[in-house]
Write a structure and sequence with these properties.
The structure is a homodimer. By secondary structure, chain A is α+β, with helices and mostly antiparallel strands. Chain A has helices at 27-38, 73-81, 138-148, 197-209, 217-224; strands spanning 2-10, 47-48, 57-67, 88-94, 108-117, 130-132, 150-153, 169-180, 183-190, 239-245. In chain A, a hairpin with an 8-residue loop joins strand 2 (47-48) and strand 3 (57-67). The radius of gyration of chain A is 19 Å and the shape is globular. Chains A, B: Belongs to the tRNA pseudouridine synthase TruA family.
């Protein structure tokens, strides 16, 4: 068997999320459907670095699968792209050595979150940004980002719907926010992220940006270790899984 | 009756075009459906500056309609936006005097056409650009644009499916192309445009950009006065009705 690794991008707008589940189409389903065609009806299981929620996008999701086919690795990308719908795209493919595993071998991830900060919505960006009408205080949000960086117990920034039993301590290497024209872009790099963590971080930062909370509230929110202490969960469509590190 | 004028934007991806027709939903249908609700079930006819094709977008389409309602003009925009789907948006509303007509009073229009010029597609721009892999010669296309400007008989750049019986002479005030990062943007301003004219102009310019035709071919194509002389019709999703002048 040959283990193939792929970096894939997808527009999550039309999907119920990455992972196969009873309701609605998923990215994994589309990948496995395309691989099944290439394998003449045989099922091939795809393993990703992790899930993404409904309507969340990826520019650098990483997957692996095992195949008995002896297709040169340089042809895998084109082969799969010709079978995939136009909202899922293979960007790179290679054949890693030494038992690579897309999920267990991750050392970190980067997420970005895009907000349109303008009185009017931009309908051409509606699937790729969330819309905040009130002007946002970038300086205050930047200060708050400083409190997010580092090793913390992020229980307050984790959805109670998580099925995680273990520790909720994670290390955020970088949390930042910048203004780009009519958009505000949040960047988070970390050792790992809990369920809905980025969206709850963004929701809380947006409340700080609107002046409803102070940057100095972050340490207290972390200390509280309860979801109620943090802000709202920001909507999914602004979120992009940007890069997975190994 | 009060005549209301509106500037509207729409993402044409999900529509069969602007104008009401038997197959598939249209922008006009959505506008009239929303107005019908506001008028408690009474039909209100909407007149636009002109049609746009299936999958073509607008950032500055202009419409008018007549209403017996005495809603302050400053509230019309919000009223209609609250009823419209999220891919159609009223940007401005006013109450013009002197019998304004959205179609008959136009003095010119501006269209823009966006091309992604890169070996790989960008799936987040797939509904708003057409994709050209081969590198494009901007200088050659700019030169060709010079031949398009001015008053010409544009029969060669008009779809034979047109129902226009009259003259196909139009004046192009401006034809231009520029490179913006990974995209190439075409701009056309003119007194009026024939059926598929912008898309045939772009399709022909792209053949010049790829070196398959010379900029100097444009005068001959115009002179030929037959659709076969020009290039392919570029796909609809890169096209935006940008502005209508009165």
């Amino acid at each position: 068997m040959n283990r193939i690794r792929m970096t894939i991008a997808y527009d999550g707008s039309g999907y119920a999320g990455y992972q196969v589940q009873p309701n609605g189409g998923t990215i994994q389903e589309e990948l496995e459907k395309a691989l099944k065609k290439i394998h003449k009806g045989k099922t091939v299981k795809v393993t990703a670095s992790g899930r993404t929620d409904a309507r969340v996008h990826a520019v650098g999701q990483v997957i692996h699968f095992d195949t008995p086919l002896e297709i040169p690795v340089s042809n895998w990308r084109r082969a799969l792209n010709s079978m995939l719908p136009d909202d899922i795209q293979v960007k790179e493919a290679d054949q890693p050595t030494g038992g690579f595993h897309a999920r267990y071998d991750t050392t970190g991830k980067e997420y970005r979150y895009f907000v349109r900060n303008h009185p009017d919505p931009d309908l051409f960006r509606r699937h790729y940004t969330s819309h905040v009408k009130a002007p946002l205080d970038i300086t205050a949000m930047k200060k708050a980002c400083g409190y997010i960086e580092g090793e913390h117990d992020f229980t307050s920034f984790c959805s109670p719907k998580t099925d995680l039993k273990g520790s909720k301590v994670r290390t955020i290497f970088k949390a930042d926010v910048e203004s780009r024209g009519e958009e505000v872009v949040f960047t988070f790099k970390g050792s790992g992220f809990l369920y809905n963590m980025v969206r709850i971080l963004v929701g809380t930062l947006l409340e700080i940006g609107k002046g409803k909370r102070a940057p100095e509230d972050i340490p207290d929110i972390l200390k509280a270790r309860t979801r109620e202490a943090a802000g709202r969960t920001a909507p999914p469509q602004g979120l992009f899984l940007w890069k997975v590190d190994y």
